[in-house]
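Support request, please re-run this one:
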Amino acid sequence: MCGPTTQTAVDRRSQGSAVGPPGHAVARPAANVCGAMACTRRELLDQAVAAAAWGLGMEATNMSRRDTERLPNVVLVVADDLGFGDLGCYGARRIPTPNVDRLAASGLRFTNAHAAAATCTPSRYSLLTGMYPWRKRGTGILPGDASLIIDPGSATLPEVLLRAGYRTGVVGKWHLGLGGPEGPDWNGELRPGPLEVGFDYCFLMPATCDRVPCVYVENHRVVGLDPADPIRVSYKEPIGAEPTGKAHPELLKVRPSHGHDQTIINGISRIGYMTGGKAARWVDEDMADTFTSKAVSFIERHAREPFFLYFATHDPHVPRVPHPRFAGKSGCGVRGDVIVQFDWCVGELMRALDRHGLIKDTIVIVTSDNGPVVDDGYADGAVERLGDHRPAGPLRGGKYSIFEGGTRIPFILSRPGSVKPGVSDALICLMDLTASLADLTGQKLAAGEAYDSVNVLPALLGDSLEGREELVEQAGTLALLKGDLKVIEPSRGPAYAPLTDTELGNSPEPQLYDLKADLGERNNLADQKPDEVGRLRDRLARVKAREAR
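Re-run finished. Output below.
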């Protein structure tokens, strides 16, 4: 369903001939003997460079390196469940976000940017693959012990930049699975994973902070694991003797409001059961510091070469346990406090870029994986302290919703001296970054690669007011956004989720909204404009049948 399998540029380059200059005996560069599951994309790229050096001479190799030095770095910061109305530059008044606001003042702030889906795993899948997640089975919200759902060797966003000579790293939330069909081996090598889909380096939370295992993964191994205390994980039944939130609520420092009552780690009960790995377990209060330190270190290691950093923060996802220095800083409850903490993380990255003189040489993007949610499983006081703050701003719905609050997200792009400050209402999607950055780095994607990604580079750089023509949004059903109109497909799902207090947007009848006149999606025009409903539903059917662009 995901289109024809294509050989990557790196694979094609690594299959060079053994012919050398006349009169010289040439040894063929070593073939890929790593094995299908053991060779990282960087190792393949190094083999390709070696082949190029033998076949073309070092002069050509040096020229290629000089060319890459002119390419801008890319830092992509993706918050978790940050809403359209959660930042000062998008209208928030009760939560101070000075670092992000400064980025917005120096760059482009987009008002019609979207994730492809209203929840994390499918949104992040589309971001990295350039494909609508509904084209592939198994891309819904994953358990913490899921296998990798991205095909190694595919033209992912980091793979495309790897081909262009970038160093590529991911720090923070992953939630796209690890390991082969048998699942992750927490006590051995965790592959395939990020290093097999285009990243040089990774430091990860495997899934989400509210799911076990509560350990960090660096490259292919759990960090700090004691072999004498092996990790076991189950999403089916209790294991080991670890207390659970359901049986021992007196041990909790944050109590669940719904679900989230299984194994207790660091005084917080999670989704799923875990035993072992005690020396490797994270401390929630330190997570933002840990991730930020690793991200800054990546920048410092690669300050003299083009790099791509995907920095995927935990905040403001649940459980919300800010470091004590951020507790109470927002005046808007713990959810506001962790947004302040997120803003600090962004500021630390910017200070690292500034120390190395990289501000004008780096494209910095700050965005979110989907819309906001206030009560997502813990009784942390976020609802009671929300006050008049509106996480989704003027939008209806939020995380899990097919209304705009589910997928319309903050998106800021800054590169002082190259991108003129302003506001853009161009329609863009996170999955468009693959095609757009391929263009930026002078690459042409092959047929079938990043199939649904649209090159919107002129809009991203402020050279055009036009983005993509249409977008399919995903939640419990699908919707098509085209121009000012949006049609939502009929669905048998519930219209409202009481546990999260979310209007989901499901209805047994089609819905049609004019977003220019009715951004809050309150006036359903389907009965008044049946021809428009039919036209848009026909177009959605064609997109689903793979007739894209």
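The CA atoms of residues 371 and 399 lie 4 Å apart. DSSP finds twelve helices and 22 strands in the chain.
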